[in-house]
Amino acid sequence: VHPVFAHMPTTVFEEMSGLARELGAINLGQGFPDDPGPEAIRAKAADLVLNGYNQYPPMAGLPELRQAVAAHYQRTQGLDLDWRSEVTVTSGATEALAAAFLALVEPGDEVVVFQPVYDAYLPLIRRAGGVPKLVRLSPPHWRFDRAMIEAQLSEKTRLVVLNNPLNPAGTVASAEDLALLAQICVERDLIAICDEVWEQVVFDGLTHTPLMALPGMRERTVKVGSAGKMFGLTGWKVGFLMAAPALTHGLSRAHQFLTFTTPPNLQGAVAYGLDNPGQWFSAMPRDLQRSRDRLAAGLTREGFVVLPSSGTYFLNVDLPASGVMEPDRAFCLRAVKEAGVAAIPVSALYEEEPVTTIMRLCFAKRDETLDAGIERLARAR
Ligand code: PMP
Ligand code: GLN
After folding, report:
1. Is 304 exposed, middle or buried (0-12, 13-18, 19+ CB in 10 A)?
2. 182 close to ligand 1 (CB < 6 Angstrom)
3. Ligand 1 centroid vs 226 CA: distance in angstroms?
4. Where along the sequence do coiled-coil regions lie (predicted)?
């Protein structure tokens, strides 16, 4: 590998999905549903592509989608976003994150990031010239406190990146944790990038609180969303950046040189979905919660110990507590090769002092797939 690429390894999601494809394994690794997604939204995308939504849409996104996004967050999270000056449509949350780091990180800036860390953050921060400062979270609670964050702050700290709900932990940040982070951002004059792609996927009656809604955060938070996660259409790559006008100005400048825009038929179809949600935003998490419970119950029956999951598509297994004494990566490689089931070793989402005891499983799957996965995991053990 050329040294220039040293900070850009192949992501664990591609590695494990590649193995699953090659070996014909059940894929409980990378997070995507095996359900085709809401039919009316897919039909709308097909209709729009056949009826003229095929040329460059406006750089910041179709007005109808930006209006729908602002209205959606008003309805669901009480946010008051001006669609003209505070909403940018991107090609997935991944592009939103890239644009945010390119716009906001100057060479030498320090960026506080929590481990386990979503795979895209560190390579993007480093390519922008930033220096990640890692706060290590660990199971079973994955919580932080003031001392853990303050230990990573310096004069050079510019940004904090929070993912809430947290992939891969499946946790939803508590009100206290959010308040603490907001306080620190205000005290130190930091900008927060809050990756909230899982905001609609929360269970057990919990509600999502956007970091942007906390005192002092409205002007200093960049909120990242993903239609792929909202509608279970993960391949669509339609994302959103929401921020105060002064920040949005810079974010949209970065966005214009990354992708400039996002396929117009997909934007129009997402606008349609947001404007006509019906029961989707209650039915989708309810169905996923049922799948979570099915996977958890099946694994427990087989003697695995699972951690609580309050959001995302993911359930974590505590391997040593389940009698698996191999490190997570060794077990996951053996499970895919010998038992035909792919999972994500959570150690891959740490850069320093990895937690090597946790295996992440995606439960956004049909019952038959989950049941077969449980049986195969039991065989691997
Ligand atoms: N952030 C997190 C925490 C995610 O889990 C994902 C998708 N798995 C993304 C960002 C990327 O979202 P998108 O597919 O919209 O680019
Ligand atoms: N977000 C997905 C996951 O956590 C993966 C997305 C990707 O492959 N980059 O499984």
Report:
1. buried
2. no
3. 7
4. none
Task: Output the pLDDT for position 1.
Answer: 67
pLDDT the model gives residue 195: 99
Our mutation pick for probing the ligand 2 site, out of 19, 117, 119, 237, counting the most ligand atoms within 8 A of Cβ, is: 119
What tens digit of pLDDT does each residue of 92-133 get? 999 999 999 999 999 999 999 999 999 999 999 999 999 999
Assess contact for 336 and 25: CB atoms under 8 A. yes
Q: Which residues line ligand 2 (CB under 6 A)?
A: 11, 13, 30-31, 167
pLDDT for the residue numbered 162 = 98
Question: What is the per-residue pLDDT across 117-128, written as a single tens digit (0 to 9) for each?
Answer: 999 999 999 999
- pTM equals 0.97
CATH class of the structural domain 3-30+280-380: alpha beta
C-beta of 196 in contact with ligand 1 (< 6 A): no
Whether the predicted interface score ipTM is above 0.95:
yes
Q: Could you read off the pLDDT of 332-375 as tens digits, one per residue?
A: 999 999 999 999 999 999 999 999 999 999 999 999 999 999 99
Cis peptide before 63 (omega within 30 of 0): no
Task: Give which of 211, 215, 219, 239 is closest to 227, Cα–Cα.
Answer: 239
Domain boundaries, the chain: 3-30+280-380, 39-275
Q: Kind and range of the H or E element at 241? A: strand 239-242
Fold of 39-275: Aspartate Aminotransferase; domain 2 (3.40.640)
Mutate to test the pocket of ligand 2, among 30, 97, 314 (most ligand atoms within 8 A of CB): 30
Residue 119 alpha carbon, nearest atom of ligand 2: 9
- pLDDT for 6 equals 77
